[in-house]
C-alpha cells in the first residue's frame, strides 16, 4: 500500500506538469509564430517478484512485476506551420518551410525566431535598422545588421521569396540593397531551447545552422505582408486538459483508497 501511495503521487505530479504545459500553450494561442509543446512521460523502476523461465513443460512463461509510477521525460515542441494571416505592413514576414529568422540579442548572442513582425529602430547615429518588437537587430545571411539609408522609403520596401531586400526610389525604380534576410535551417530543430520573447537558442544537439539557400534537404521562402499565427488548436488543448484533469483525479483517488486500506489495517488491533 505504501508503494501505491508513492506511485499515485508520481502520477499526480506528472499530470500537474502536463497541465502546466497545456496552460502555456493556451496562453500563447495568439502569440505570433508560437509553436505548441507536449509533455512526454516514462515509466519508473520495476520490482520483479518472479521472472519468466522455461525449463520444461511446467515452466512459467510470464514475469510478475510491479512498477513505481511515472515521471516527465521531455517536452517536445511541434514545429508544424500555423495559419498565415495577411497584414498591411511591409515589415511583416512569414516563413513557408522550416527556416528561422536570425536575431542578434542585446547580449550579442545570436538567436532565432519564427516571429516576423519586425519594426524600424533609429540608432544613435541616426541610421535606421530592422529590429524585433523588443529592439533586437534582425541579421542578414552574413550575420550583419540590416540598416537602411536615410533616402530609403520604408513603405516601398520589397523582400522577395528568397529574402533579397530592395526598395523603390523616388523615380519608381527598384534598387537592390545587396542584402538578404538571414534564414537558417537546423539539422535538429527539436533541440532548440526557447528563451522567451519568441526566441530560440541553439546548442550542441541542434547542430550548426545552415543558410536556407544552401540547404539541399529542404527549402524555405519568405512571404512579405504576412504573419504566421500560433499553431495551437484551442479545441485540442482543451481536450488534453480534460484528460489530464481526469488522470490527476484518478491518481488522487488511488491515494485516498490506499490511505483507507492502511487505516483499516491499523484498526485491526482494536
Largest sheet: 5 strands, antiparallel
Shape: elongated
Give Rg in angstroms.
27 Å
Q: H/E element string?
A: HEEEEEEEEEEEEEEEEEEEEEH
Q: Could you give the distance between the termini?
A: 20 Å
Tell me the number of structural domains. Answer: 2
Give the % helix. Answer: 10-25%
Strand content: 25-35%
Q: Care to count the β-strands?
A: 21
Summary keywords:
32% strand, single chain, 22% helix, alpha+beta, 270 residues, three-stranded antiparallel sheet
Structure summarized in a few sentences:
Residues 224-268 form the Flagellar basal-body/hook protein C-terminal domain. By secondary structure, the chain is an alpha+beta fold.
Structure description:
With 270 residues, this protein is of the alpha+beta class. It has two domains: 114 residues, no CATH class; 145 residues, no CATH class. Helices cover 22% and strands 32% of the residues. It has two helices and 21 strands. The strands form eight sheets. Strands 7, 8, 11, 16 and 19 form a five-stranded antiparallel sheet that branches. It has a three-stranded antiparallel sheet with strand order 9-10-12, with no helix packed on it. A three-stranded antiparallel sheet has the order 13-14-15, with no helix packed on it. α1 packs antiparallel against α2. Pfam families: Flg_bb_rod, Flg_bbr_C, LlgE_F_G_D1. InterPro entries: Flag_bb_rod_N, Flagellar_basal_body_rod_CS, Flagellar_FlgE/F/G, Flg_bb/hook_C_dom, FlgE/F/G-like, FlgG_G_neg, LlgE_F_G-like_D1. Keywords: Bacterial flagellum, Cell projection, Cilium, Flagellum.
Amino acid at each position: 500500500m505504501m508503494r501505491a501511495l508513492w506511485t499515485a503521487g508520481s502520477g499526480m505530479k506528472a499530470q500537474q506538469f502536463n497541465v502546466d504545459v497545456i496552460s502555456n500553450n493556451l496562453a500563447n494561442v495568439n502569440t505570433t509564430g508560437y509553436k505548441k509543446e507536449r509533455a512526454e512521460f516514462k515509466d519508473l523502476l520495476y520490482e520483479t517478484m518472479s521472472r519468466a523461465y522455461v525449463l520444461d513443460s511446467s515452466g512459467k512463461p510470464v514475469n510478475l512485476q510491479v512498477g513505481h509510477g511515472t515521471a516527465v521525460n521531455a517536452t517536445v515542441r511541434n514545429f508544424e506551420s500555423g495559419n498565415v494571416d495577411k497584414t498591411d505592413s511591409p515589415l511583416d514576414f512569414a516563413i513557408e518551410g522550416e527556416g528561422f529568422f536570425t536575431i542578434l540579442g542585446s547580449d550579442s548572442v545570436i538567436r532565432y525566431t519564427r516571429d516576423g513582425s519586425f519594426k524600424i529602430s533609429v540608432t544613435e547615429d541616426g541610421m535606421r535598422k530592422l529590429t524585433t518588437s523588443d529592439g533586437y537587430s534582425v541579421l542578414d545571411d552574413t550575420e550583419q545588421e540590416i540598416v537602411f539609408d536615410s533616402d530609403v522609403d520604408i513603405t516601398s520596401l520589397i523582400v522577395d521569396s528568397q529574402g533579397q531586400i530592395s526598395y523603390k526610389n523616388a523615380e519608381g525604380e527598384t534598387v537592390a540593397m545587396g542584402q538578404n534576410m538571414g534564414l537558417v535551417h537546423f539539422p535538429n530543430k527539436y533541440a532548440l531551447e526557447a528563451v522567451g520573447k519568441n526566441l530560440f537558442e541553439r546548442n550542441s544537439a541542434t547542430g550548426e545552422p545552415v543558410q536556407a539557400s544552401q540547404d539541399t534537404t529542404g527549402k524555405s521562402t519568405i512571404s512579405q505582408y504576412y504573419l504566421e499565427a500560433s499553431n495551437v488548436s484551442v479545441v485540442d488543448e482543451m481536450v488534453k486538459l480534460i484528460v489530464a484533469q481526469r488522470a490527476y483525479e484518478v491518481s488522487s483517488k488511488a491515494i485516498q483508497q490506499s490511505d483507507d486500506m492502511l487505516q483499516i489495517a491499523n484498526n485491526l488491533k482494536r
